[in-house]
Design goal:
disordered N terminus; Gyrase A, domain 2; five-stranded mixed sheet; General secretion pathway protein L; 2 domains; 382 residues; 11 helices; alpha+beta
Length: 382
């Protein structure tokens, strides 16, 4: 056991030299100070501190555990579109918030969320360091990072859990108990010598996840970008308009000449107009029909208030009533919260509550207050 652990502790991942050079070119590290990666005489990766200024920007930044908050949650939602709406609602669409949905199982969604500190410099892609180290280990294996603000991290049931070293969490066993991870037989140790190489290896594993960690530019940056491209774009657009206008003038003259001799073209044009009018009527009728269909997306505005106090096993629409099934400490208190929501009307228990393992199982149904919802939509349209 000791020999195996020592082997894991001193093991440095083997990476192609080309990938190491690309990693040094495009990636940097932030732990309160900006650092970049370089290769030593043995072609091993190491960290080098650099002076930060706005002109120094690499596209990929790895952020130290002390500069973000991390959550691991399960949601009783198996619809990806609705789950993304809920996550956007919880995070208020902040650019410092990133989420990754690991998958869906038994009507549950596993989600990790990260909120970066405002002290973290802006860059195109920001990765939390715990994500990268978790991807280098096997399921339930605890990674003990002993360099650069030490912490523990593990991945269990798809979700990533991590905690900084402190006086209480001072061993992998205590960490496993505190986050509820079934500890694997061997820990993985990352020391100062293997730190940079492990990060590069983790980034290689995280490439398929990269789209979830892209940071969109702020408004002022987008305006500057617009200014930079407006002049060449205007020139191209003006040239295009001039050429298009010349072509249209020629085409008009050509059509007018043919129209005088071929009345058949007029008949074809009229037939096309009739077809267009018919399709326009069909489109209008379809649009009117869709406007009459019931939209249940407002249910998540109600559910967002309930998640802290209850867990749900089923959410469904039965006729015109939303039916919630789940567990809570006090079902009557939950019913009161639902009843007090302005978006809800006629909330009630469909079946008597039942106590099970210290919690009350409930089935509550209600109607969405369409009048309130409609008035909100009208105000938003104005």
């Amino acid at each position: 056991m000791a020999a195996d652990k020592l082997k894991i502790e001193t093991l440095i991942p083997s990476l192609p030299l080309t990938f190491k050079k690309l990693f040094c070119t495009f990636a940097c590290y932030f732990d309160g100070e900006l650092k970049r990666f370089s290769l030593n005489a043995q072609n091993e990766l190491e960290l080098t501190q650099v002076e930060y200024n706005k002109s120094f920007k690499l596209p990929i930044m790895i952020v130290n555990r002390g500069y973000y908050t991390e959550w691991a949650k399960e949601y009783p939602i198996d619809n990806k579109k609705e789950l993304k709406k809920l996550l956007a609602l919880e995070s208020s669409n902040s650019q410092n918030n990133h989420h990754y949905i690991w998958g869906y199982e038994n009507a549950q969604s596993q989600v990790n969320s990260w909120h970066f500190n405002n002290a973290v410099p802006e860059t195109f892609i920001r990765f939390p360091i715990t994500l990268l180290f978790a991807l280098t280990a096997t399921n339930n294996q605890i990674v003990n990072v002993q360099a650069n603000n030490p912490f523990y991290v593990a991945r269990s049931n798809k979700l990533i859990h991590s905690l900084l070293h402190n006086s209480v969490i001072n061993s992998s066993k205590r960490f496993a108990v505190s986050v509820g991870v079934a500890q694997a037989e061997l820990d993985k140790i990352v020391n100062k010598q293997s730190f940079a190489s492990e990060l590069a290896f983790g980034l290689k594993q995280a490439i398929p996840l990269i789209s979830s960690f892209v940071t969109m530019p702020k408004v002022e940056n987008r305006l500057q970008l617009l200014k930079n491209i407006s002049v060449p774009f205007s020139l191209i657009f003006t040239t295009y308009l001039a050429l298009s206008s010349g072509y249209l003038v020629y085409k008009q003259h050509h059509l007018e000449k043919n129209l005088a001799n071929q009345s058949n073209d007029v008949s074809i044009a009229l037939e096309q107009q009739v077809i267009f009018d018919t399709e326009l009527k069909q489109y209008t009728a379809l649009k009117s029909f869709l406007n009459t269909q019931k939209n249940t997306s407002e249910i998540w505005l109600v559910m967002a208030e309930l998640f802290p106090t209850a867990t749900f096993s089923n959410v469904r629409l039965a006729g015109k009533r939303m039916v919630l099934r789940g567990k809570t400490l006090q079902a009557t208190g939950l019913l009161e919260i639902i009843s007090n929501n302005v978006l809800v009307t006629d909330a009630k228990f469909d079946f008597p509550t039942r106590k099970y393992r210290g919690k009350e199982e409930f089935v509550i149904s209600f109607r969405l207050n369409t009048n309130i919802i409609q008035s909100v939509k009208v105000q938003e349209e104005r």
